[in-house]
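pinned: reference chain
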Amino acid sequence: MKVAFPQAPEPSEDVAERGRLLFAGPVDFVKGVVSMDGLPAPDRPEVCFAGRSNVGKSSLINALTGRKGIARASNTPGRTQEVNFFALAGRGYLVDLPGYGFAQAPVAVVQKWQALLKRYLAGRPNLRRAFALIDARHGVKPVDHEIMALLDRSAVPFQVIVTKADKIGAGTLAQTLAQIEGELQRHPAAFPQLVVTSSEKGEGVATLRAIIEGLVDG
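pinned: its structure tokens
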């Protein structure tokens, strides 16, 4: 049976306010992890962000937190080479994963951090949801299916966040969303709602904040 993947509805005022307050509170960098034994204790709920290199992951995290420099943004693919943990008001972790796919780094380095990414996704018991970021200009690529298949096998629910929606017109965006919906039919762990975002314009930020607040406190 085909599963529909509509856009997530905008939150009500009170729900949006709870999400705003979560990110308006302390958002502190905890540590960057390069091996599984360096992970913080799984003592609170966490969500993670995964995406191809240069998909706009750092920019989206900065937009969510309202802090321009908390996650380094760069035009150089593969800038994030660690699993970076941020504490959300002491209530949960937001986790920035290494970009996958093409990256301007030595092959051995790329292989090491992508192996860490896969081990993290497969073995983190307090992970409530993964957010898989897809560039609105490109849609789902084969390398995205590799990560989504890993999430399927690990029984980790994931939700697609469409980034850079302001970079294309409404008609092209509609085509991209249809392509994403079709591709997600292959993945049983996919959460049946999309969140369309623009870090520059702030589109979808309140919705995503509310979703994360619900996962942290749910």
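why pinned: Residues 73-79 have pLDDT under 50 and may be disordered. The longest helix spans residues 107-123.
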